[in-house]
Amino acid sequence: MAYTKRLDGRKVNELREMSAKVGVVPNADGSAEFRTGKTWAIAAVYGPREVLPRFMANPKKGFVRCQYTMMPFSGTGERIRPGRSRRAQEIGMVMDKALEPVVDLTAFPNSVVDIFVELPQTDAGTRCAAITAASMALADAGIPMRDMVCSVSVGTVDGTVVADLTYDEEAYDAPVSDIPVAMTARTKEITLLQMDGHVKKEELNKALELAKEVMGKVYEVQKKALKAKFMEVSQ
């Protein structure tokens, strides 16, 4: 039977309920939290600051360095082992690449901007929530940026293209593909594109169009959170 009705009742192009807030970690240079459904990401930014170890320093410009951690009892499935796993290291590197195109650190040679993201609760879409929170935290820290980065997962469940898959949809007893996408908010340039599972060319094209369609909703949540913070400061 084709997947015509989503398990949580959403439409195929409907995102989970989202919320965001910036300035949530008092001792960080910038911070943000982003929630989508049961997935919750908290990002803290420190820097620009001296690079350690020093051999990693670039005399021409600074760089971003992301660390991603899921808390042991955050997942819907089995308990997550404490510490950095290979998967966490891979997602940290993916986040670096997704954010680098919008961050301008030419004025900060030999420096690094460290981004730490922790997920207290997860239900799929974790790297997308992490990237979305990290982008807001960078803006909150006043890091020079050409644009914001928004991220959402699209994919297919039994041949139906859907947005923002849940853990139950990823585990659905049928062919499933999960496609995390990150884009710049204004120009819709893709800064992250990954895929888990198999998908037909026409399904991939449809999924990317869907990602463009819904990404603006993520950006509106980011923008609202940042405006709320700076309106408080100005009052």
What are the salient characteristics of this protein?
235 residues, alpha+beta, Ribosomal Protein S5, domain 2, five-stranded mixed beta sheet, four-stranded antiparallel beta sheet, 9 strands, 29% helix, globular
SSE class: alpha+beta
Tally the helices: what do you get? 4
- Please state the average pLDDT score: 91
Question: What order do the SSEs take from the amino end to the carboxyl end, as H and E?
Answer: EEEEHEHEEHEEH
CATH class: Alpha Beta
How would a textbook summarize the main sheet? 5 strands, mixed
CATH topology: Ribosomal Protein S5, domain 2
Overall form? globular
Uncertain runs are none
**Domains, number:** 1
> What is the spatial order of strands in the main beta sheet?
1-2-3-5-4
The rounded Rg comes to: 18 Å
Strand content: 25-35%
Helical coverage, percent range: 25-40%
